[in-house]
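Q: Please design a sequence for this.
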């Protein structure tokens, strides 16, 4: 059994950043990754980078193809090729950032615990290895949930968010099972490429976590782009028939059944922590009811030698949260132990539909449920000069303000460049600024950021 200073299981954002940091401190680090297609983690291989690359290409489709279906298919194939080149380059760069470091050894294989401070690695070449350390970090991420639908595993035309990005031919028709944020991002993307998209959502309300005015605006914009929504739709069976795929669905509100024929099906029914092969019980590591590793506010598991980083511990599944997990662990190991998971709120997130939907803090409905006396300000995206220069005037900007303190409780920006502008709101909230700070701030012109001047100047409802 080989002893090292640290074992990191999974080559994701938090784990790879931690590996380099520890190596700089002359720790001997063993990085274990079971797939040579996942060096660098979910983000650069099957998440943020490839999807946002395709979103960008999809947004250019109409400008480049002018609605020509043959041209749309060619553009889609070219977009997949560009995505593959980019991810391969980043994957290679990430691998060498670690493998070329004399203090880091990258092991291609699958790890499982054999005790509280030791793991066995089944190497890709068929050999095995045993490692022990007083510092073990689990960074194995999450995987797509495959719902219990009759025929789902038999169909050759069913994809997850990972596998559909390897599809080299644009599907003429695409059914998306799941109306959450991942489903909407892919629905918007493929509609942009020219697919006829139908979203089957088993909820009665569209994106129920959002305020109803925001949800209605998002739905209307996507429908204008050709996306069809079937609410209260539970998919019960999937069958491949004559070069297509047929879905049998049940309307949970009315009780009637209906069928949809399509060329491809995307399962966007959520992701769960990837822990099945880890043999966590041998290390005394507990998981919750959703399969996520239980951690304290410093990311320690129920085993004092083991920490969990990123999606595997549950909670928000964002690359930047995984990066902040690294910062918390760094402080726990070498700092004054002040950083923890409870001090990083509020943080923003974005869904890269067209235009992107970005959010931070409380929505109007949530704030009112908490009994806060709130003021709400709204601004149509079409009121922003920069939106007109970009020819992207769809959307709505909204902020929720505590009338008593003047503090910003939250904001939802559904507009072009919202993924950038929301960071300005985040900094104002994090530093405790009142809404008047953004109302009176001097922004460049023309920019989408200056929309915050007008938004915060609106009469409060």
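A: Design:
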């Amino acid at each position: 059994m080989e002893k090292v200073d640290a074992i990191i299981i999974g080559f994701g954002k938090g784990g790879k950043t931690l590996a380099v940091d520890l190596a700089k401190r002359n720790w001997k680090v063993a990085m274990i990754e079971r797939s040579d297609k996942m060096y660098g983690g979910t983000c650069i291989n099957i998440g943020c980078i490839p999807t946002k690359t395709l979103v960008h290409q999809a947004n250019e489709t109409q400008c480049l193809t002018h609605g020509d279906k043959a041209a749309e298919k060619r553009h889609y194939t070219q977009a997949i090729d560009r995505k593959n080149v980019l991810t391969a380059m980043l994957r290679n760069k990430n691998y060498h950032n670690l493998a070329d470091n004399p203090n880091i050894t990258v092991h291609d294989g699958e790890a499982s615990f054999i005790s509280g401070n030791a793991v066995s690695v089944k190497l890709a070449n068929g050999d095995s290895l045993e490692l022990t350390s007083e510092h073990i970090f689990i960074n194995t991420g999450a995987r797509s949930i495959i719902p219990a639908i009759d025929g789902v595993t038999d169909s050759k035309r069913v994809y997850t968010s990972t596998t559909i990005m390897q599809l080299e031919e644009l599907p003429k028709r695409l059914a998306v099972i799941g109306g959450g944020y991942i489903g909407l991002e892919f629905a918007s993307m493929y509609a942009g490429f020219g697919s006829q998209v139908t979203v089957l959502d088993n909820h009665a309300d569209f994106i129920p976590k959002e305020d109803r005015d925001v949800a209605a605006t998002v739905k209307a914009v996507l429908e204008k782009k050709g996306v069809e929504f079937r609410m209260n739709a539970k998919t019960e069976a999937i069958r491949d028939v004559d070069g297509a795929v047929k879905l049998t669905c049940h309307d949970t509100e009315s009780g009637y059944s209906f069928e949809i024929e399509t060329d491809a099906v995307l399962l966007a029914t959520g992701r769960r922590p990837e822990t099945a092969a880890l043999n966590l019980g041998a290390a005394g590591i507990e998981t919750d009811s959703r399969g996520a590793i239980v951690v304290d506010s410093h990311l320690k598991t129920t085993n004092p030698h083991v920490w969990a980083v990123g999606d595997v511990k549950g909670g928000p599944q964002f690359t930047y949260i995984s990066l902040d997990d690294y910062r918390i662990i760094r402080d726990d190991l070498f700092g004054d132990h002040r950083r923890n998971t409870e001090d990083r709120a509020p943080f923003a997130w974005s869904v890269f539909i067209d235009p992107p939907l970005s959010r931070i803090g409380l929505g109007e409905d949530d704030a009112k449920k908490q009994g806060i006396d709130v003021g709400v300000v709204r601004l149509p995206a079409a009121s922003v000069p920069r939106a007109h220069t970009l020819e992207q005037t769809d959307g709505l900007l909204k902020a929720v303000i505590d009338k008593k303190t003047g503090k910003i409780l939250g904001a939802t920006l559904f507009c072009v460049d919202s993924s950038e502008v929301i960071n300005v709101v985040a900094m104002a909230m994090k530093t405790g600024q009142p809404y008047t700070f953004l109302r009176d701030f001097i922004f460049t012109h023309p920019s989408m950021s200056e929309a915050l001047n007008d938004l915060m100047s609106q009469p409060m409802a």
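Q: Thanks. Anything notable?
A: The radius of gyration is 24 Å. The first strand starts at residue 2 and ends at 3.
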